[in-house]
Automatic annotation (TrEMBL):
Entry function: Flagellin is the subunit protein which polymerizes to form the filaments of bacterial flagella.
Domain Flagellin N-terminal span(s) in chain numbering: 4-99
The family this protein is said to belong to: Belongs to the bacterial flagellin family.
Protein species of origin: Rhizobium tubonense
GO CC terms of this entry: bacterial-type flagellum; extracellular region
Record bears the keyword Secreted: yes
Entry's Gene Ontology molecular function annotations: structural molecule activity
Protein name as it appears in the record: Flagellin
Annotated Flagellin C-terminal domain residues: 268-352
Length: 353
């Protein structure tokens, strides 16, 4: 029966067209976005997992940036330590040179805080070596003060920083299950000057655990303070004495001491500190290696996370493009069917002519 009130064919064709249009919009969305799960309504489970994984990847990316910063800090620290070590080797070699020279004459005054020039001593060959040693101490101080990256200087421990030993420097190295993983480096391994110390002593003696590599005293018939000293109030002060060897020479001469013996002791102490700096550099190098390995692992983890997200939510572009062509054809056929259904009622007019 044909009805001019209800066009069942047109209604059926319209339902088909609506279904095809929905499918077409979905397929076009996949092709344009590259995602088959773009929102929670597409697939709630996959969308939730992928969203969480994207959040984790963002944290991993932040970790990667932090590792890059940590590597830069450690590179600066290692370079500074190596430069200091080379300066210390040079100072040790100059002490060896001074030992081989004739004993110098002095004005006889011996006190490590004495900053007054000694014209008698200054004309000697040893004084020339002593002056060069002073310049190398000053260069070491410059290296320590300038070995900073992004405001972080591991070569010195300021008065307001944690006391040695026990203080650590921590670097972000990973992110797992909401937890930030860190790598620790003993602050003492990198500290050249500790401004938060309260005692000066020989290296390896009681109290030296609170000292940096350049703190405390060198002793050779007289006390030698390399760069800083702890004053009577317990505060760390810069040593302004330009002489390293002069007061040693004064005491050796005044007490008729064995010059080679005391120079040998001074050189041995320098060697001990140089070896300590070398050990600290080894600790820094190990931390650098650990960060490099962690950076590589973190990058691989980000790549795997990206792949995992893609497997769940990315559209198969070959399938999507093929389906798009098919759905577009179906849409055209559905439109033609609707046109045919709509024109069927026009044929009723011929019955009344």
């Amino acid at each position: 029966m044909t009805s001019i009130i209800t066009n069942n064919g047109a209604m059926a064709a319209l339902r088909t067209l609506r279904t095809i249009s929905v499918d077409l919009n979905k397929t076009q969305g996949q092709v344009s976005s590259g995602l088959r799960v773009a929102k929670a309504s597409d697939n709630a489970a996959y969308w939730s997992i992928a969203t969480t994984m994207r959040s984790d990847k963002g944290a991993m990316s932040a970790v990667s940036d932090s590792i890059g910063l940590a590597k830069a800090v450690l590179d600066t620290t290692y370079s500074g330590m190596d430069a200091v070590r080379q300066e210390m080797v040079t100072i040790r070699n100059l002490m060896v040179t001074a030992q081989s020279m004739p004993p110098p004459s002095t004005n006889g005054y011996s006190n490590w805080t004495d900053n007054e020039p000694d014209s008698t001593y200054d004309s000697s060959e040893v004084a020339k070596v002593d002056g060069e040693i002073y310049q190398h101490w000053q260069q070491i101080n410059t290296i320590v003060e300038s070995s900073s990256f992004s405001g972080v200087n591991l070569l010195k421990n300021d008065k307001d920083e944690p006391a040695l030993p026990g203080a650590t420097t921590e670097f972000v190295a990973g992110y797992v299950n909401g937890q930030v993983l860190k790598i620790s480096l003993d602050t003492k391994d990198t500290t050249m000057i500790n401004y938060n110390r309260s005692i000066d002593n020989l290296w390896g003696q009681p109290g030296s655990e609170n000292m940096g590599y350049l703190d405390g005293v060198l002793w050779s018939a007289n006390v030698v303070y390399p760069i800083t000293y702890v004053d009577g109030n317990g505060d760390v002060q810069k040593n302004e004495n330009p002489y390293t060897l002069r007061n040693v020479e004064v005491r050796i001469t005044a007490n008729n001491l064995d010059r080679d013996h005391y120079y040998g002791a001074l050189i041995d102490q320098m060697d001990t500190r140089i070896q300590a700096v070398t050990s600290g550099m080894s600790a820094v190098g190990s931390t650098q290696k650990r960060l490099a390995m962690q950076e590589e692992f973190n990058n691989n983890l980000m790549d795997n996370t990206t792949k995992g997200i893609g497997r769940m939510v990315d559209a198969n572009m070959e399938q999507a493009s093929a389906k798009l062509a098919a759905v577009q054809t179906q849409q055209q056929l559905a439109i033609q069917s609707l046109n045919i259904a709509n024109s069927s009622s026009q044929s009723m007019l011929s019955l009344f002519r």
